[in-house]
Design a protein that fits this description.
Two copies of one chain form a homodimer.
Chain A lengths: L1 H18 L1 H8 L1 E2 L3 E4 L1 E4 L5 E7 L3 H12 L5 E7 L10 E5 L6 H16 L4 E7 L3 H4 L9 H13 L4 H10 L7 H6 L3 E7 L22 H10 L23 E7 L1 H14 L3 E4 L8 H18 L7 E5 L15 H12 L7 E6 L11 E5 L2 H7 L4 H6 L3 H7 L3 E2 L10 E7 L1
Parallel strand pairs in A: 4-5, 4-7, 5-6, 7-8, 8-9, 10-11
Antiparallel strand pairs in A: 1-2, 2-3, 11-15, 12-13, 12-15, 13-14
Helix pairs in contact in A: 1-10, 2-3, 7-9, 11-12
Chain lengths: 426, 426
């Protein structure tokens, strides 16, 4: 059992390593002094200038990795990063911006980034780094729309019950940089975008609102959404975005270097290496956390009772991100609540380890990435007079696991590819 | 797609056939004129009398199957069945009782059944049929406890927040027939119990409160639960139940002839036969229906996007029984609500069929067993001006699917092994 607890940590660490911006970039890109290999081979002697642009919470780590890899071959650039992450690098400017609510600083940085792209010529190589938060960190409303007006439109859409997809369609057609427009501006330069995905399914057009990716949605889609929800907007601001057949996107290459899916792949490989049969349920997991936990427990019970869908030693994995409807007044996060609810559902079902952690290292408003338990944890809790159901009822998983020393603390990991959940049945 | 819709029905039909009391009994028991084969071989020439006893909603169908199989070899017996199911058979008395709230008729029948068991000698064979509802249909409080008092205790326990497990422990130790006591009374007769399981995990001691199964719980467990919840009871009524090593249970054989697990096995076999790769998630599925639906949809999305945990054509199966927290004023059932919620979660994700049905044929307070949709159903609904989210919000899945002619109507099937859910990805 001690082993299984250690295994859970090892498996989580493997997924964190896969999601680490630096390690992920280093795996995705090779440089031998002349050729840069990233999906394709690029002969760097063909380029006069190499610049790094982009935005996102992992922006600094990704730019730093590129600086380490390419050294003096990088001439400069600008990346929008959150406050606190804007520690200077040697060549690429780190531009501090606001997140999650965009501000003028982000807009100024976005303008600078777009300018770099526009000024790049056929002998320029742009390396673009995109990660979680890029959309808010790199705002650039299409004139005459202002940032304040754009935020107002977003708020109206939200309160009108628009879906996240509808919001994204509108945003792209009112922005000067999203929906492939950054990449189109870069023509005739070559652009390679390195993308750390924080969205389920890794849809390139969705991550950071796809500044380097052709937009599948049309201007009239945005118009009909705005009309449907009766939202006022300056007509001149609404415009078309580049489509997949746009020749100005011919020199663009988008590469996903990290994602929940890849983190789960790494977790599954590690689990196999440790001797577990693995079932990766889904990287699209969503829903109310405690109910999602019951379903995971149900799959574990089937393994325990009937040896299917796989036999022990088994590792059931899932990713994605669940939600918590707060009803109590406690402290916790979706990962900690998942573990508590699953532990209750599996109580008395024999040997198991339940683990859930956020790859960003921060689960809800807590200093823990998540929590983990084994089949002795609830026994210990009850012996200490703790009522697990009461803690769950009060959304107070943090204080429950704190008392049991079952919290996982990694600190900020500098990445975010959503969550990793697992149930080990040794 | 039309094929996939038909496949879903075929797969459900296969699971219903596996759960059908008559067919299930016929598969479990063979008779060649001398030897009755049921888990073991019984030489019927060794017995002077064969009687059928038991209780449950499928009691009549099971007794009838035994009559058909053994004909004149059956001398009589008594089975407690619900009102309406008490259509007479040739040899075995059908005794009408109340369900789900037990009444004096049930008690009278239980007394008769226990008497048959007590009067049986070493040359008697008792065939006992147990199915869903047996516990309520065959009540027999241990004197001096009365039926009214016993129901009062059950109500108190319920309102005190006792778990279903605690309720069962108390019930057995205050009953004269549950927790293996019927089987013990039958000694030295031979007893074969045919059991149609309606509980997750098919725990023999739980199904119908296990009248023919040794009780793993002790008298002191029941006492401490009653004390913990401060429930008053006549001390003389509390007594010990037979334990697994009780020699009076040596001639007892319990056979599960039907269960959710076996129904899912049949469904999986049929799905394979139709060319699908199958993933049976769990027969223990539980939780809030619309959230459970999201998790099923998440697994389907992983199959669609990444070809795992299995590749198309894929059939994702699950069983068990979910719950619905009613918030709206519509009409529906857990199976119909599952299909509606899963359809919304999979909208726009390409070709699929979603199916959910209750094996009893009655989903919630409706005349449908469940519903099924394919990827065109929501398109059709929206074209008709129906808002699926609004119907889900109002717990009104029945009226939604009624308009779309997507309800599954089987009528009462005469069995109940919980639900069968599936997502087909052709």
């Amino acid at each position: 059992m001690k082993n299984a607890r250690k295994h859970a940590l090892d498996i989580f660490r493997a997924s964190l390593a896969a999601a680490d911006p630096d390690q992920a970039l280093m795996r995705a890109v090779k440089f031998d002094g002349r050729f840069l290999t990233a999906g394709r081979r690029y002969d760097l002697t063909r380029f006069d200038r190499v610049q790094v642009i982009g935005a996102g919470k992992a922006g600094r780590a990704m730019a730093q990795a590129l600086e380490r890899l390419l050294g003096r071959r990088i001439h400069g650039g600008c990346v929008n990063v959150p406050d606190g992450g804007a520690v200077p690098l040697r060549r690429v400017t780190m531009h501090a911006s606001s997140h999650p609510v965009p501000d003028e600083r982000g807009e100024a940085g976005a303008r600078r980034i777009l300018q770099i792209a526009e000024q790049a010529g056929p002998r320029d190589l742009l390396l673009c780094v995109i990660s979680g938060g890029a959309s808010a960190l790199m705002p650039l409303p299409f004139p005459p729309l202002t940032l304040v007006e754009k935020q107002e439109i977003t708020r109206h859409l939200l309160s009108s019950g628009a879906t996240i997809h509808e919001m994204n369609v509108v945003r792209k057609h009112l922005s000067a940089i999203k929906g492939g427009q950054l990449a189109k501006s870069a023509w005739p330069a070559t652009l390679i975008a390195f993308i750390l995905s924080d969205v389920p399914g890794d849809d390139l057009a969705t991550i950071g609102s796809g500044p380097t990716v052709a937009d599948p949605s049309a201007q009239e889609d945005a118009l009909s959404i705005l009309k449907h929800y009766k939202i006022a907007f300056p007509a001149e601001a609404l415009h078309e975005t580049p489509k997949p057949d746009d020749p100005a996107l011919a020199r663009v290459k988008n590469i996903i270097i990290g994602s929940n899916r890849l983190a789960l792949d790494a977790a599954a490989r590690k689990a196999k290496e440790l001797g577990y049969r693995t079932l990766m349920l889904s990287s699209f997991m969503e829903g109310e956390t405690r109910e999602v936990a019951k379903v995971h427990a149900a799959v574990a019970k089937e393994v325990i009772s009937n040896g299917r869908p796989l036999r022990r030693p088994a590792c059931i994995l899932s990713g994605g991100e669940t939600t918590v409807t707060l009803r109590g007044k406690g402290k916790g996060g979706r990962n900690q609540e998942f573990v508590l609810a699953a532990a209750l559902a599996l109580e008395g079902c024999g040997e198991h380890v339940i683990f859930s952690g956020g790859t960003d290292g921060i689960d809800g408003p807590t200093d823990a990435a998540g929590a983990y338990v084994d089949s002795s944890t609830l026994v210990r809790a009850r012996a200490m007079g703790l009522d697990p159901r009461q803690y769950l009822h009060n959304n107070d998983s943090y204080h429950f696991f704190e008392k049991l020393e079952a919290l996982i603390k990694t600190g900020h990991t500098g990445t975010n590819v959503m969550d990793v959940r697992m149930i080990l049945l040794p």
